[in-house]
């Protein structure tokens, strides 16, 4: 997740906010965060 966040930051610095590759990386990071949250919630429910 950290490497995806760093890649997003790097792409943003190169291309700015509205560039397609920045938006795509943002969606990738969002999905990783969502997966993490789902895993955390599942783990929390089974404790």
From TrEMBL:
<dbReference type="InterPro" id="IPR036638">
    <property type="entry name" value="HLH_DNA-bd_sf"/>
</dbReference>
<dbReference type="InterPro" id="IPR018540">
    <property type="entry name" value="Spo0E-like"/>
</dbReference>
<dbReference type="Pfam" id="PF09388">
    <property type="entry name" value="SpoOE-like"/>
</dbReference>
<protein>
    <submittedName>
        <fullName>Spo0E family sporulation regulatory protein-aspartic acid phosphatase</fullName>
    </submittedName>
</protein>
<dbReference type="InterPro" id="IPR037208">
    <property type="entry name" value="Spo0E-like_sf"/>
</dbReference>
């Amino acid at each position: 997740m950290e490497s995806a966040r760093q890649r997003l930051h790097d792409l943003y610095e190169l291309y700015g906010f509205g560039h397609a590759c920045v938006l795509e990386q943002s969606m990738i990071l969002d999905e990783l965060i969502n997966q993490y949250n789902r895993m955390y919630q599942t783990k929390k429910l089974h404790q």
